[in-house]
């Protein structure tokens, strides 16, 4: 018997980076596709969009912390 195991995503058990990735996928309307077909079903354009937005959000979060620490 071969087949993929279906993984149930528990948001409480995700690390912060994974959680952010799912949040961004939801924001741009790809979460349903990811949940039904998996991350491998995304095109390179969709994956790049998610990666770019994740990077931008991480920079914004860390940028705000650096500014407050410097004062």
Automatic annotation (TrEMBL):
Chain intervals for the UniProt region annotation (Disordered): 50-71
Record field: compositional bias (Polar residues): 62-71
GO molecular function: double-stranded DNA binding
Listed PROSITE patterns: SASP_1
Biological processes annotated in GO: DNA topological change
Alphabetized UniProt keyword annotations: DNA-binding
Domain of life of the source: Bacteria
The keyword DNA-binding is assigned to this record: yes
InterPro entries attached to this UniProt entry: SASP_alpha/beta-type (IPR001448), SASP_alpha/beta-type_CS (IPR018126), SASP_sf_alpha/beta (IPR038300)
Family as reported in the entry's similarity comment: Belongs to the alpha/beta-type SASP family.
Function as written in the Swiss-Prot or TrEMBL entry: SASP are bound to spore DNA. They are double-stranded DNA-binding proteins that cause DNA to change to an a-like conformation. They protect the DNA backbone from chemical and enzymatic cleavage and are thus involved in dormant spore's high resistance to UV light.
Protein's UniProt name: Small, acid-soluble spore protein, alpha/beta type
Organism the protein comes from: [Ruminococcus] torques ATCC 27756
